[in-house]
Every structure is written in structure tokens, then in C-alpha cells.
Description:
Belongs to the IspG family. It comes from Caenimonas koreensis DSM 17982. It is a single chain. By secondary structure, the protein is an alpha/beta fold. It is 45% helix and 19% strand. It is built from 13 helices and 17 strands. The strands form 4 sheets. The chain has an 8-stranded parallel barrel with strand order 3-4-5-6-7-8-9-11, surrounded by 5 helices.
Amino acid sequence: xxxxxxxxxxxxxxxxxxxxxxxxxxxxxxxxxxxxxxxxxxxxxxxxxxxxxxxxxxxxxxxxxxxxxxxxxxxxxxxxxxxxxxxxxxxxxxxxxxxxxxxxxxxxxxxxxxxxxxxxxxxxxxxxxxxxxxxxxxxxxxxxxxxxxxxxxxxxxxxxxxxxxxxxxxxxxxxxxxxxxxxxxxxxxxxxxxxxxxxxxxxxxxxxxxxxxxxxxxxxxxxxxxxxxxxxxxxxxxxxxxxxxxxxxxxxxxxxxxxxxxxxxxxxxxxxxxxxxxxxxxxxxxxxxxxxxxxxxxxxxxxxxxxxxxxxxxxxxxxxxxxxxxxxxxxxxxxxxxxxxxxxxxxxxxxxxxxxxxxxxxxxxxxxxxxxxxxxxxxxxxxxxxxxxxxxxxxxxxxxxxxxxxxxxxxxxxxxxxxxxxxx
Length: 424
């Protein structure tokens, strides 16, 4: 039976949120509205160690983090924030800094005005800014600082530090219902209510609603999906998206990817962070790589040329294609800090490194530049395809090195020309 309509390509729904502007100097990072979904991360250094923190911020920024959050938990840490900012400026790293405040943020922002100015955004957790009358007063002090210095705020609710008075009150109300909700549903409601009511309170104080970002973080994938769907339904504040305490390695990567992928596809999320616990010795930048890959896999942003490579099977007992794929992928990532400025559009390039005759030529034709290496028992020849056409065949012991050079030549020819045209 002939189909009556073409199959529509899948694409994330459009976002419809306000737009915040986190700035430092001439660098402005827009969040929400029609801005790209932003990648952010957080240091795990002691902020009192200003040099170590500045170095890690630089590493995260170079890896692709467009905002970087640092812990500001003590007077000693607050005192070092301006020095961290100064060190970054000297290194030419203009990434906006976010101050992560808990419990005593009202005092630190008041007592250390240089810290308040050096930060571009404040993270406020309404669950731990105080109790009773103190809560409103201390929350108000932080909002007043944000308004005074024209800073963005993220009102970030976390189910691990949820406002217990609010939750207890909702539990009491729930017990009086004819048909009480499940405890988890009450917790969802408390998370969403805490975020939105806090944001509305800030607006009532005079805060620009466009400069408010909300988050409701939980550690379960389905819980996150439920909460953000409701959060997105009830408000149009820009949303920070992330699975808190996602975990280590494969578990953290998969859980974050699934949760963020579902919500981003539904048009929810204006800035994302992958909260990955690094393995001993693993670079903190891994969480930035994963966040970027999530967005690139969905097709909503491009950060680095993509490398298509087959997983290998009994037809590819040699590891040559695996080694070449990793070599090319590592090379492209290492070059991107320079290529971003030198070769506009190179981040959208597609490279294929395939391992045998079955899918190799076809996948290589679909890429901008691709190579189909010989599989087990195949002739020792590797056809190279450029812009969908077979360009040449590599043979011998130096296939990997020669293909590496072909990729470099292709980048220069195609994207170097784009730069020359742009400046003509």
C-alpha cells in the first residue's frame, strides 16, 4: 500500500521561554528564548585555591562549557572569587562564572561586594536560605544583590534539600484529601511550587523576570521527566536542566543522556549540565563532552566534527579502523579551539572511518570525507570518498597517516575557503 504522506523527520519541539543574559565584559551568553541550548559545568576544586580553580575553569571553558559554576561557601572562598576572575581575564578566558550559594549566600554577597560583581550569575537554593521569617529576609538579600549588580539568578530546587516546611504543609493538606495523592506526587508538587513561588517572589521585589532561570533537580530519570513537564507547563521562565547526582561512568552518562534527551526533544531545557562523578584521575571535562554530545546527537547544536565508525564484528578482526577512528576523533577535538575561529562551519563536518565492504563505502559516501578500510580477507585497499564521490584508494602500510593528512587538507580547502569568503 502506497503511503499517502511522507514520513516527517523527527525534531525537538520549539522552546518558548524568556531569555536571560549572563555577561562578563563584552561576552554575553544568552539563555532561553531563541538562544541555543547552553552547556555548563561546575568545578570540583576548593575555591580558596584560586589558581587551581582558575585553571580548571579554563579547562572546562576550552572543552566547551559556556558557563562555569564555582562553590562559594565560606568568607575565604568569597574573597578569592575576584582573584579567580582576574586570573581568567589574564588568560583570555571570558567565560561567565556562576556562584553556587547555600545557607550563607545572603551574607557573602553582602559582605563581599567584589565577589558579587565578579560573578555573572547566582545559584540560589530556596530550600536552604533560612527558616521561618529568616527565609524571606535572606532570600530577599540575595535577590537585592542580583538586582544591584544586574546579575542572572538560578533558583535551583533540589529534592535532597527541599523546603521541609513547605513539604510538611503539603503533606498535611494531602492527608485531608478524600483521595490522597501518593507521596511522590506531593514531592513533585512541592518542587515545582517552591521554584515558581520563589521566582514570583523575586519578580514582586523588582527582579527582571527575564533574568530568572529555574531548575528542579532530582536523581531519577522518570522523576525528572515528570517534574520538568509540569514546570514547563506552568511557567515560561528559562529552565536549567540536569539530573542531579547522576553517578559515575556508564551509569551517570546513560541516565543523564536518557533524561535530558527526552526533555530536550519535548522542547524543555535552555541550559544543561551533566552532573557526572569523575572516576579517579578522570578529567572534569568529561561532563562537558557528554553534554555537548547529547545536544549534537539530537541535532540541535554542533560542537565538533562527528566521526562515524562501525562497532566491529567477525568481518573486522583487525583493530586498524578502531585505532584510526579514535585517532581522528581525538585529533578533531584537540583542534577545535583553534579551528572555531579559523574554519567557520568545521564543527558540522562529518567523517566516516569504516571497517569492511558491507557498509563501509555507503557510510563513507554519506560523510563529507570517509574511508572504508579492508575487512578480514578483503584486498588491502582503502577507498576514500570526498563529498560523496570516490576520490582515491589508499594502499600499503601508511593508510592511517595518509588519511589523516587528507582530512587536514579537506578542512583547509573547504572551510579555509569559507573564512576567506567571509572576510572578502
